[in-house]
Amino acid sequence: MTTPDEPPQPETLRRFRRVRRSMAAGLLASLSGSFVVAGVVPGAVAAGALSIVWLPVIQSVETLEDMSSPAVARLLRDRNPGHVLVACEAFDAAACALALALIYLTPIRPAAIFIAYVLVASAVPLFVDVAEELFTGEIAKISRGEALRFNISIYAMIGFTGSLVAKPLGSVLATAALPAALGINLGASLVGLLLRLRSVRSMSVFDDEAPEQASDGETDEPQPKAAHPSAPLGKIIGAAGPGSPAVSGLLACSTAIVTGYLAQWVVHSMAHPSGAMAALLVATGVGATIGPYLARPATVRERFTAGAGLLLTARIAALGAILAIALMTGAGSTARFTAMLVLNAGFGATVVASSVVQATARQSHYQGHALAQAVGWSHSFAAAGTFIGVWCGLALGVQCSPVVGILLAAAVALAAMARLSPRSQTSTRDAAMATEL
Span 151-163, mean pLDDT? Predict the structure, then answer.
């Protein structure tokens, strides 16, 4: 049996990496179907198949569900996260199959059945997100390097699969046939279910022989353990560092103030707005795919605070450059759009890289119930921040005149940077806090 200070044996690492790859592949399959469905809704609204009222309704339902993350984390903290992921895939596949059956066997309008499926299945991503991070926490107990690689791979897959492939496909299918989108989602869910079952069976091999923690060469620092199964709400909210819920909420708010609205602003002056929007989506997807790899230097040696600070500095610099473009009223629309393509990719990369640092920091500093609490409240704060940011951006008219919105987004990002406490809250002190919790 490997001790915490010894790296796992080569055969153990090979088996463990197979588990990680199977779970990552299962996530990729699951996300592919989910993103196709997500792309259908705005496409169907644009085509007139769905009323525009469904956009804010679905967004509001998903936001309210995300705010319940602490309750979901408490519910899942004593359960095997791998089994939860399998159950989520099975539920989604069953709901999708039922929707398809109703479309073909009943006279109910396909659009109504599709919306009902979207609302019923809207809670699945919440359980998947929480369970996925708890599963990565289990990986971190055995190998923090493998946990880091898992985080990087899934965030990169989300960027590539979502923005570059599945969502555009869903938008196309919205004008052709809703059952086709549901069929793709059903097939993807079944593939994801099989892959997750395989990884859960393989992971069970480590239950009796895995150490509390181990290193595989990615880090040489011992991992602290959470000595208490729970922590007061005040300590969770008041925690400093990249993994704190307050930082998650502030960064989500900063991003939501400008995300989406800036794209509308920049394409408004283009001759072909739809084509320009597609190009911006591709740029965002490229940034989201590259972003996770930018987080690797910051996380590989657990320099979470310094890495997060550097990424936030880059984010604020990108916002400053966008502000400069907004103030240059004499700039041509083509030149402004070209600059925004580059800045959009860069901004998206820093946002995703920050998410990787935040998730890895939580998984490294907390274990057990403390990790479940940190994950739950971080997701809840992020949902609340997104909700506030979206409505602030709309109220400020960022899509028409982005200057004030950009300044507010930068100010909120600076507030998040202040919560990192670079002088007094190093990763060592964060680890001590985790031990206290």
Answer: 76
